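Section 5.1 Outputs to date
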Amino acid sequence: MMNVKTSTRQISGTFDKVRDRWATAPGYQRWIVYVLVIVLALLLPNDGIASFMSPDADWATILFDPIGIYILLALGLNIVVGHAGLLDLGFVAFFAIGAYSLAYMGTKHGWSFWTCLVLGIVLAAVAGVVLGGPTLRLRGDYLAIVTLGFGEIVRIVALNTNEIGGAQGIFGIPTPPAIGGLEFSLANPVSYYYLVVFMIALVVIVSRRLEKSRVGRAWTAIREDEDAAELMGVPTFKFKLLAFFVGASIGGFAGVAEAAKINYIQPQNFPFLLSATILVCVVFGGPGNIPGVIVGAFLIAWLPERFREFHDYRYMIFGAVLVIMMILRPEGLLPSRRRRAEMAEGSGGMGSMGGEVASPDAHVEAEVAK
C-alpha cells in the first residue's frame, strides 16, 4: 500500500510540473495546444480510432451520447460542485427542462431548433434561480436532499402532465437545420458529435473566464469557508445563486442537444441515477479543474461501452475501479493544487460537503502540494 501511495505522489508531482510549465508558457504555445486538442477532438470519429475505442457499438453515436453529453453536463455541474462547493443531486432536472423545451415547443408550436435552444437555456437558468432562491440558505446534506427532491419533482411532473406527453413522452422532435455541409439526422451521428464539440468548447471558454474573474474568486472563498467569506464582505448568497444559474443553464444547453439527437424523450430518460453519475464524473476527474472534469466524464462514459463483452460484470468491475480510485486518490485524477491542499487540510475540497477531519497522511499530502 505504501508503494502505491508513493507512486500516486510521484504522479502528482509530474502533473504539478506540467501544470507549472503550462502556467508560465507563452500565449502562442497555449494556442498551439488548444488547436491540437480541437483537431484531435474532430478526428475522434475516424474508423481507425473506432475499431479500438468501441468495437461492439457505433463509435460516433457513443461520442455524442454518452461521452459528449456527459462532458457537457459535468462541466455544468462542476460550476456548482467544483467551484462553489454546493452539493447538487438534482442536476438532471435542468437537463430535462432543456430537453422538454425543444420537444414541446418544436412539436406543438413549430419553433425552430435555435429558438428552442435559447428557450431551453433560459428556462433551465430560471429553474436554477427558483430552486436556489429558497434553498441556498441550507448547507451540506440538507441542500443535497432538497436538490434531489427537486430533480424527482420535475420527473414526476413530466410523468403526470399529459400536455407534455405524460408517461408516453414526445415523439418527432425536430432536428437542427443543416449547417454548411453538416446534415443532422439519426443516420448521421457525426454531425451531432461536431455540434456537441462546439458546445463543449463554448462552455469551457465561459467556465475558464468565470474561474479567473472576481466571480471565480468569490466561489473559491465560499467553497473553502463560507462563514469567513461572508465576514470578509463576500455576498455569499448572491454568488451561490449565480453558480446555480450558470450551472443550470449549461444543463439546459445539454438537454436541448440530447432531445434533438434521440428524437424522442420520456420522463424515464431523466432518472436520479443520471445526476449521481454526473457527480461521479466531477469527483472522479477532479472537482474545479476543467481538464480533470473532462477526462473524468470521458472515462466514466466510455469504459462501460468499451467493455461490453463482459456484459453484466462490466458494471461490477467498473464500480470496483471507482472505489479503489477514491481510496488511493480521493482528490480525483487531475486535481488542482488548491483542491489537493484543501483535501489534505480536511475540508474535502468542497466546502461544507467535504470531510471535517484530515486524513492520517494530510501533512504529507500538504507538503507534496507545496
